[in-house]
Amino acid sequence: MTTTYADSTTPGTHTIRPGAFGNATELRCRECGASSPLGAHYACSECFGPLEVGYDFPTVTREQIAAGPHNIWRYRELLPVPADVASFPNTEPGLTRLVRADRLAADLDLARLWVKDDSGNPTHSFKDRVVAVALTAARELGFQVLACPSTGNLANAVAAAAARAGIRSVVLVPHNLEQQKIVTTAVYGGTLVAVEGTYDDVNRLASEIAGEEETWAFVNVNVRPYYAEGSKTLGYEIAEQLGWRLPEQIVVPIASGAQLVKIDKGIRELVELGLVEDTPYRIFGAQATGCSPVSAAFHAGHDVVAPVKPQTLAKSLAIGNPADGPYVLDVVRRTGGTVEDVSDEEVVDGIARLARTEGIFGETAGGVTVATLAKLVRTGKLDPAAETVIINSGDGLKTLDAIAGRVGPKATIRPTYEAFTEAGLA
Fold first, then answer.
1. Would you say 3 and 13 are in contact if contact means Cβ atoms under 8 Å apart?
2. Contact between 221 and 137 (Cβ < 8 Å)
């Protein structure tokens, strides 16, 4: 059976092919629970609450997953994508390495620590995961342009995915974004627009454009319910790479908050499907103090998140009005975690600490996560004896300015051994 629909957010009338969204069955309001049909909807028609994808999962086995592609499409039965998703040109993200971090663990007096290193994705951040799912939804819904507002990593991922798929991209970024992220977006040949203002200003502009341009799919606006599902694959991979079991503690950086919330959703789905044992786990959120509205709400005991104006070097996390902030609060409180924030100086320390101990050069978001992990240990809020996983969401080569003033050559010498020894380097 084919489904034909038309609404105000789609380009005229588009026919959805059978199985376009796999085992997804509906879009469900996260506030009132009302159900909407699958389509280009992102706000509840009853209460304007955000929508997320609901499913009717079949039996899924570990063997089926293991036999799948070496990327996120091995979990296609658990995502809103068609069975033939891997046959379309895409960046094939996912299945990044889970690094056992014994030296960092020893540095922090932890018993066992892992780093889920998502800098290994095609554009060197976890955003390739969410964009791959959003691109699939955009294609199945008949959109012709892939677009986004971004703090940098998403800009890279959208521009690359669109180039790979052979469609136009339009990316909006704050004008003061790191130069490395501007270059690594522009190189893909799409339309890159620098906007005078913060990310929240850029996001408002994107929402306005999305309402006017009917053929444009803004991955984190009008196809956001599908886009966000891509982050579940982080939770799936962590469990699979640990031998189909759950870690006891996970520390996740917070920008919009969707990554943390969807990792939790992915874990709960694995439990419901019997793919992992239902063992206790705690999720912790990490923010930079210069943009820490979720941390502030958590410590004040609030259920809502008051917007702030970001002022931090961790620009990839600088979202002053995080869309999933309230849901982050729900997850960390339900699992017994917390949300903490760290200064920019601590962020730089965190970048250097991860690089020095594990040979992993994380971007500023990774620095936030490592510094928050250290703070959680120092303040006794994280159990040092429990197995812990932290997320490194992007590559340090994208935020060189953050660390450039801290590191450099030990000495500059003449090209002779005598000069080498005179400098005390032998």
1. no
2. no
